[in-house]
Amino acid sequence: QVQLVESGGGLVQAGGSLRLSCAASGLTFSSYAMGWFRQPPGKEREFVAGISWNSYSTYYTTSVRGRFTISRDNAKNTLYLQMNNLKPEDTAVYYCACATRRYATIYSAESEYTYWGQGTQVTVSS
């Protein structure tokens, strides 16, 4: 049974930092591209960042580029999202997701991801 469990969310002031983690089990984590998505209050879920199975490639949505860093530790089956210089508009529930196909490239579309975590709340106060 595949499980993705996010942690590290919380309340932070604007300009602060948080590091999200996503612990994976039940799959060969090192074979799959991974992504972070978020759902702001009252809005649809959106792509934030993705990383290839071997960490060679990363991709970010424009609004977080230069502030967020996605990384992974395949030995620990864990995905990370380092978020710096947080803004109130970053407030959302953050989800990690596992791509559907092995050794696939990074996708921004939700339809390309099969497994999802339960989400972790990030709240940025102004």
Verbal overview:
With 126 residues, the chain is an all-beta fold. It is 0% helix and 53% strand. It contains no helices and eleven strands. The protein has strands at residues 3-7, 10-13, 18-25, 32-39, 46-51, 58-60, 68-73, 78-83, 92-102, 113-116, 120-125. A hairpin with a 6-residue loop joins strand 5 (46-51) and strand 6. It is globular and about 40 Å long. The model has no long low-confidence stretch (mean pLDDT 96).
Q: From the alpha-carbon coordinates, what is the Rg to the nearest angstrom?
A: 13 Å
Total helical elements = 0
Order of helices and strands: EEEEEEEEEEE
- Helix residue percentage: under 10%
Structural class estimated from helices and strands: mainly beta
Give the overall shape, derived from the CA principal axes: globular
Distinctive features:
single chain; 126 residues; mainly beta
Task: Give a short overview.
This protein is mainly beta and 126 residues long. It contains no helices and eleven strands.
Topology at a glance:
Elements: E1 3-7, E2 10-13, E3 18-25, E4 32-39, E5 46-51, E6 58-60, E7 68-73, E8 78-83, E9 92-102, E10 113-116, E11 120-125
Parallel strand pairs: 2-11
Antiparallel strand pairs: 1-3, 3-8, 4-5, 4-9, 5-6, 7-8, 9-10, 9-11
